[in-house]
Amino acid sequence: MSFWEYVGTRHAQLLTDTYQHASAVFQCMVLATLLGVLIAVATYRSEWAGNLATTSTATILTIPSLALIGLLIPIVGLGVPPTVIALTLYGLLPVVRNAIVGLRGVDPDLVDAANGIGMSRAARLFRVELPLAWPPILTGIRVATQMLMGIAAIAAFASGPGLGNEIFRGIASLGSANSLNQVLSGTLGIAILALLFDAAYVLIGRLTISRGIRA
């Protein structure tokens, strides 16, 4: 059976796996972005705290994804929970690092001007600092999403959702008629999803970043 014949006969399952893969990455990136920005906001004013946040999240990336998911299985079980926890943790570093860099890069004169007109600290953060730090934060989100697209495939090891199931089935049945088709369909699906997500981020950047900041 050719690759396209395989895709034609398995399109329903492939579409389901693709949706689950995209949904898992999207939801985990939302969590990673919220946690990452909160960590950055709490630490960017202090040099040692910012370094600690960056080092701590970087340390997570040194743990092999298969090992981390394997360690989580006895604690939270199989399926979605270990997938969400692992992907969220792996997505933190680019967001935290870029958010800290972006917040520290805000022009102090603009912060002083905001102080001068009586803005509270929360108002300065949400109306001045975070909007100006948004471009590097968005870059961190893009990098993290590309990482999670590939790491999410490992979630199939813990019966997690996504295209990794197709890849693992192919690897488990090496030598069979459709093993290569299974691995190829899962791999291409992940690559296409990564490109689509990145295109969406480019569009979001054009809609949310003013031309003056982009320049």
Topology:
Layout: H1 3-9, H2 11-43, H3 47-61, H4 65-76, H5 80-90, H6 92-104, H7 108-116, H8 121-151, H9 164-172, H10 179-208, H11 211-214
Helix pairs in contact: 2-3, 2-5, 2-6, 2-8, 2-10, 3-6, 4-5, 6-8, 7-8, 8-10, 9-10
Notes on the structure:
- The chain is an all-alpha fold.
- Helices cover 81% and strands 0% of the residues.
- The protein has helices spanning 3-9, 11-43, 47-61, 65-76, 80-90, 92-104, 108-116, 121-151, 164-172, 179-208, 211-214.
- The protein is elongated and about 70 Å long.
Low-confidence segments, given as residue ranges, are none
Helical segment tally?
11
Shape: elongated
Rounded to an integer, what's the Rg over CA atoms? 20 Å
Oligomer description: single chain
Number of strands: 0
Q: Proportion of β residues?
A: under 5%
Portion of residues within helices: over 70%
Straight-line distance between termini = 52 Å
Element pattern in H and E: HHHHHHHHHHH
Q: In a nutshell, what does this entry contain?
A:
The chain is built from eleven helices and no strands. It is mainly alpha-helical.
